[in-house]
Amino acid sequence: MSHAFGESYRVGSTKGVHAITVFCSWDYKVTEKRASRLQQDNIRTQLKVSGHLPCPTAPELQTSLPFCCPGSGFGCTLDPVSVGQEARLLALPLVVSLLNLGASYLFRGLAALERHESPGLEVYVAISRNLILKMAILGILCYHWLGRRVAALQGQCWEDFVGQELYRFMVMDFLFALLDTLFGELVWRLISERKLKRRRKPEFDIARNVLDLIYGQTLTWLGVLFSPLLPAVQVLRLLLLFLVKKASLMANCQAPRRPWLASHMSTVFLTLLCFPSFLGAAIFLCYAVWQVKPSSTCGPFRTLDTMYEAGRVWVRHLESAGPGASWVPWLHRYLVESTFFLFLASALLL
């Protein structure tokens, strides 16, 4: 695993890489002009990436911060349950989806103005901007749900509210993804061909689309405790989105002229899916299970102080049932409640 990880990140010696790229990269079976141009761009990109590239500076990575935090804070200060109308419940998901969509186009405009010489630097700056935006939005939303809403919904079922809210966020994100795919890419192709008189179609933005998938998956992980059918909705959403994206890609887009290093970028995206996304969702759910008091009017945990106490209550019932199940309380005491085993399991999983 460490060897494959290092290979995907191009860690280690680069001796002879330039010679191999220059003398052994050209495919002489290629005769079409467009395919020849793509192969030239591919070799040029490899030579740029294999050289010594400057790391992103602090101002470059902080360009997106003025657009991320105030916007996401504005979206999360709305109070959708203060008005009894059902339409008002869509205010917060609508604002967040608009912010995600508008910021993605803003970041693309900034990238076009900056004109980075290094393709690797351009990709990492785009990923950093979108990642900071989405993580800031989700972080503020988690505080909004488990902090403000739990306190405001005293005597009501806040678990239902959080599950319904995440369901609305997923549906709204799906609708905006469809609108962006069906109309955004089509309109941009028509402008590029008829107004700008370009022969080439707009390029497909791989980084933004993959980060949108990670954002949708994070919403699923956040809501799986409060809305158990949310993963089924996510599977259906991904199937429909794949078919629409494929049709739009064939009709309105083309492959990027700067080819991606497949193994390298796959490792980068899996890392983003694992650590900021899955780890953040796990922290959110662990805090809800261990610290937040369940609703007193609904749910299987309404008589407990925390959801975690349900395990202890179950163990007490087993202890009073008889000696036949005495090994279950022992497992719970030494494997579940033991901090040493908890730290050991966390270290192994990380």
Mean pLDDT: 80
Helix content: over 70%
Number of helices: 14
Spans of at least 5 consecutive residues whose pLDDT stays below 50 are 52-83
Rounded radius of gyration (Å)? 25 Å
Give me the count of strands: 0
Tell me the strand percentage band. Answer: under 5%
Shape: globular
InterPro entries: TMC, TMC_dom
Membrane topology: Multi-pass membrane protein
Pfam families: TMC
GO molecular function, one term: mechanosensitive monoatomic ion channel activity
Could you characterize what this model shows?
Pfam families: TMC. This is Transmembrane channel-like protein. Keywords: Membrane, Transmembrane, Transmembrane helix. It is a single chain. The protein has 14 helices and no strands. The protein has helices spanning 2-8, 17-24, 33-50, 58-61, 65-76, 91-114, 119-152, 158-195, 206-223, 230-252, 262-290, 309-321, 327-336, 339-349. It is mainly α. Helix 7 (119-152) runs parallel beside helix 9. The model is unreliable at 52-83 (pLDDT under 50).
Characteristics:
350 residues, mainly alpha, 14 helices, 0% strand
Provide a compact summary of the structure.
Helix content is 71%, strand content 0%. With 350 residues, the protein is an all-alpha fold.
List the helices and strands and how they pair.
Blueprint: H1 2-8, H2 17-24, H3 33-50, H4 58-61, H5 65-76, H6 91-114, H7 119-152, H8 158-195, H9 206-223, H10 230-252, H11 262-290, H12 309-321, H13 327-336, H14 339-349
Helix pairs in contact: 2-3, 5-6, 5-7, 6-7, 6-8, 7-9, 8-9, 8-10, 9-11
Family: Belongs to the TMC family.
Transmembrane segments: 90-111, 123-146, 166-188, 209-229, 267-290
Protein name: Transmembrane channel-like protein
